[in-house]
Design brief:
The protein is α/β, with parallel strands linked by helices. It has a single domain (about 5-210), classed as Rossmann fold. The protein is built from seven helices and nine strands; from the N terminus they run βαββαββαβαβαβαβα. It has helices at about 15-25, 45-50, 70-75, 115-120, 135-150, 165-175, 190-210; strands at about 5-10, 30, 35, 60, 65, 95-100, 125-130, 155-160, 180. A seven-stranded parallel sheet has the order 4-2-6-1-7-8-9, with helices on both faces. It has a two-stranded parallel sheet with strand order 3-5. α6 links the parallel β8 and β9. α1 crosses α7 (about 190-210) and α5 packs parallel to α6. The protein is globular and about 45 Å long. The protein starts with a strand and ends with a helix.
Length: about 220
């Protein structure tokens, strides 16, 4: 069963909603290794209430930090140091969707970045890009950072209003598949998540199958 990471080109670009859609499409488990802030209304709980299938399980975070800050800063305030070696991928018989905190180069401590743990995990990344001024630069930099560390990229999901000129140049330069697009919704409900899950499912499964068949 596939284990994949949902990464983003920045923070607040739709990783949690994307994670819920991918979880529903794969009937996968969900895990967020590091939660900074919003402990009573965590991303795990947000995804849990959006999922309709009876199969998905939700695994506890490796680190739960009180302040909504970069993980390294939130951990320091809590008197702990995040140790990447203690962030162990949960064992499950289901597919697993792992949502990162913030962008790829967010620091976990004074030495290790999130992308270092991603490389250590050996798992592929599905990258979320949101259309805003500067997102081309942020997306291409994120792809370059992943490729420089030989981290496999499954493809891109675009979030927010479609901007063809932005998306086409990103897809042209990266040569990555577009797995789906998530539009602006007045409300995110389980029905909305199911609709997007159904829409991306064929392409997502095709990309995963191709990845799993690589030597």
């Amino acid at each position: 069963m596939i284990k994949l990471i949902i990464g983003g080109i920045s923070t607040e670009i739709g990783k949690t909603v994307t994670s819920a859609i991918v979880v529903e499409a794969l009937r996968a488990d969900y895990w967020k290794p590091v939660q900074s802030g919003a402990l009573e209304d965590s991303d795990t709980e947000a995804v849990r209430v959006l999922i309709s299938n009876p199969v998905s399980q939700f695994h506890p975070e490796a680190y739960r930090l009180r302040e909504p800050l970069s993980p390294h800063a939130a951990a320091e305030l809590d008197g702990v140091r995040i140790d990447p070696n203690q962030i162990q991928v949960p064992q499950t018989n289901n597919a697993l969707v792992i949502e990162l905190a913030g962008g790829l180069l967010v620091p976990l401590n004074d030495q290790d970045l999130t992308i270092d743990w991603v490389a250590q995990s050996g798992l592929p990344v599905l990258l979320v890009s949101r259309n805003y001024l500067g997102s081309i630069n942020h997306t291409l930099l994120s792809v370059e950072a992943l490729r420089n560390r030989n981290i496999p990229i499954l493809g891109l999901i675009f979030n927010g209003p479609t901007v063809p000129a932005t998306e086409s140049i990103i897809l042209s330069h990266t040569q990555l598949p577009c797995i789906g697009r998530i539009g602006e919704e007045p409300e995110i409900t389980p029905a909305v998540i199911r609709r997007y899950a159904d829409a991306i499912s064929p392409t997502l499964h095709e990309v995963i199958e191709a990845f799993e068949q690589k030597p």
